Amino acid sequence: HAHDQAETVLREALKVFPENDQAWLALADFLNMRRGKEAALVALRQAAEQLPYSTQIPFALAALYESHKDLAEAKRVYETLAKDYARKPAGLDAEVKIAQLDFHAGRQAEAEQRLSEVLRQNPRSAQGLILQGKMALIGRNGKDAVQAFRTVLRDQPELAHVQYLLGQAYLMTGDSSLARESFERSVALQPSLVEARFALAMMESRSGQPQSARARLKAILTSHPDHREAMELLFGLDLAAGDWNHAASILRRLRQLQG
Q1: Region 63-72: what's the mean pLDDT?
Q2: Helices 142-155 + 126-138 axis angle, to 10
Q3: How confident is the model at residue 5 (pLDDT cuts 50, 70, 90)?
Q4: What global pTM score does this model have?
Q5: Angle, to 10 degrees, between the axis of helix 228-241 and the axis of helix 210-223?
Q6: Which residues contact 235 (CB under 8 A, 6 or more apart)?
Q7: Full DSSP string of the chain
Q8: 36-56: burial string, b at 16+ Cβ within 10 Å, e else
Q9: What is the dihedral of CA 89, 91, 93, 98, to 10 degrees?
Q10: Tens of pLDDT, residues 82-106
Q11: What is the pLDDT of residues 138-193, one digit of tens each?
C-alpha cells in the first residue's frame, strides 16, 4: 500500500514538473526496485520523449541495462550518446563508459586506446582519470594509479570513493601512512563506505592494533551483518585474543551464510 502511494506521489510530481529529469529518474528507480526492468524502461522511454535534450535520461537508461547485465544494449546507448555529443563532456563521459565495458570484457587494448583519446581531449576528465586509475590498480601499477586519483581529487576532494581508491594505490606503492590518511578521509567524507572502514581494520590488524581492528569490525558487522570478509578477519582476531565465545558466534554466522 505504501509503495502504491509512493508511485502515485511520483507520478503526480511529473504532472506538475514534466520537465524535471530528477523526478523521472526517481520514478524509474522506484519502478526498477518494485516492478523490475521492463517497467523502468517504459518510464525512461517516456522521459526521453518528454526531455529529448537531457543527457541524464540516456545515461540512466544505459546504467539500467548494465545493472541487468544487458551489456550490449548499454553499449548501444553509450555509443549513441558519444556520437550525439561528440567532443562535449557528455560524449566524453559516454566514451569512458564504453572503455569500461570493453575493459571488463577483456578488450584491454581497445579500452586503453579509447581512454587515452578521451584524456587527450580533456586531461581533467574525472570519469576518464578514475577509470585510468582503476585499470592501473588492476595492472598492479600503483604509481600511475596514485597520479590518476590525485589529479581527480585536486578538482573534487569530496569524492569519498576516490579517496578510498587512492588509499589502495598507496598500499600498492608501499606508502602505508598515506594509505591510512586516504582511508580515514574517505570514511570522514562518507561514513557508510564500508570498503574504506574494512581497509582501515585490515591495516590495524596487521600493524599491532588488534583492539582497534576488532572494534571497527564489530561496527561494520552492526551495519552490514553479512559482510563475510569482516567476519573472517574478526574470527581470526577473536581467536588470537582468546575470546572463544565471540569467535564461536562468528563461526555460527559464517556457517549460516554458507547455507
Answers
A1: 96
A2: 160
A3: confident
A4: 0.85
A5: 140
A6: 247, 250, 251, 254
A7: -HHHHHHHHHHHHHHH-TT-HHHHHHHHHHHHHHT-HHHHHHHHHHHHHH-TT-SHHHHHHHHHHHHTT-HHHHHHHHHHHHHHTTTSHHHHHHHHHHHHHHHHTT-HHHHHHHHHHHHHH-TT-HHHHHHHHHHHHHTT-HHHHHHHHHHHHHH-TT-HHHHHHHHHHHHHHT-HHHHHHHHHHHHHH-TT-HHHHHHHHHHHHHTT-HHHHHHHHHHHHHH-TT-HHHHHHHHHHHHHHT-HHHHHHHHHHHHHHH-
A8: eeebbbebbebbeeebeebbe
A9: -170
A10: 999 999 999 999 999 999 999 999 9
A11: 999 999 999 999 999 999 999 999 999 999 999 999 999 999 999 999 999 999 99
Count of CA atoms in the C-beta half-sphere (13 A) of 5: 2
B/e letters for 134-160, b = 16+ CB within 10 Å, e = fewer, are bbbbeeebbeebbebbbbbbeeeeebb
C-alpha cell at 94: 559516454
C-alpha cell at 123: 586531461
Report CA-CA distances (Å) from 22 to 17, 28, 56: 10, 10, 9
Q: Which single residue is written with the C-alpha cell 546504467? A: 63
**Cell 606503492 sits on residue:** 173
Q: Are 21 and 54 in contact (CB under 8 A)?
A: yes
Phi, psi of 193 (to 5 degrees): -75, 95
Give the count of alpha carbons within 13 A of 47, CB side only: 27
Q: Which amino acid is at 120?
A: R
Angle at 187 between CA 124 and CA 240, to 5 degrees: 130
